[in-house]
């Protein structure tokens, strides 16, 4: 509650002090202000400065948010590096590692290492987290595609984004049936582009459970 009171004070005082200072600079007067007025102005300036400093220290939109983003970035980096250790690991339906994986088994294994317990199937994983637009993708997000056997609107495959390019394309890592754990670019203008269903964000939305 204290930080919100301080924030409100700073919000009210800052425009007032800026206005007073601007008017004083733009409209100089040959008459001296009474000493009491000068003391009041200096005191108000000090209060304003203290309020601004407090605002920067306690604001939920600056330091806390920046710290959270830094934490997410560090965590995601560790997760993508860990996932890369399994490149080349063979694919096996129903396997959840570490000697073999299917797609959801691989994603679940990586996330569990960092305290996120995901559902076992890709279809169930698609019901978790927060929906993300393709243009807002970031590393750590999950991409979902239809499978070979199901319809084009039925989730059957999942992958994890590891890198996002300036042009909006990205690279994901997944357990593919033909190559095992491997990297793939998206959109690819072919198989994965045609089967893409949507993306979900787990990191920063769901809290680790371990």
TrEMBL record:
This protein's name: NlpC/P60 family protein
Domain NlpC/P60 as annotated: residue spans: 73-203
Signal peptide: 1-24
Keyword line: Hydrolase, Protease, Signal, Thiol protease
GO BP terms, alphabetized: proteolysis
Family annotation (Pfam families): NLPC_P60 (PF00877)
Molecular-function GO terms, alphabetical: cysteine-type peptidase activity
Superkingdom field: Bacteria
Keyword Transcription: no
Family statement drawn from the similarity comment of this UniProt entry: Belongs to the peptidase C40 family.
């Amino acid at each position: 509650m204290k930080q919100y009171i301080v924030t409100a004070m700073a919000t009210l005082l800052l425009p007032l002090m800026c206005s007073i200072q601007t008017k004083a600079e733009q409209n100089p007067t040959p008459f001296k202000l009474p000493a009491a007025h000068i003391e009041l102005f200096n005191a108000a300036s000090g209060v304003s400065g203290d309020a601004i400093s407090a605002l920067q220290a306690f604001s939920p939109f600056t330091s806390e948010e920046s710290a959270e983003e830094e934490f997410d970035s560090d965590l995601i980096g560790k997760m993508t590096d860990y996932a890369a250790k399994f490149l080349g690991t063979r694919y096996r339906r129903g396997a959840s590692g570490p000697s073999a994986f299917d797609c959801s088994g691989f994603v679940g294994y990586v996330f569990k290492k960092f305290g996120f317990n995901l559902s076992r199937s890709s279809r169930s994983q698609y019901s978790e987290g927060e929906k993300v637009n393709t243009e807002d993708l970031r590393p750590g997000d999950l991409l979902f595609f239809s499978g070979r056997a199901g319809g084009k609107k039925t989730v059957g495959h999942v992958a994890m984004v590891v890198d996002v390019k300036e042009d909006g394309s990205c690279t994901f890592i997944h357990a593919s049936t033909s190559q095992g754990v491997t990297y793939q670019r998206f959109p690819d203008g072919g198989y994965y582009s045609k089967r893409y269903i949507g993306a979900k964000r787990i990191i920063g939305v769901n809290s680790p459970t371990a």
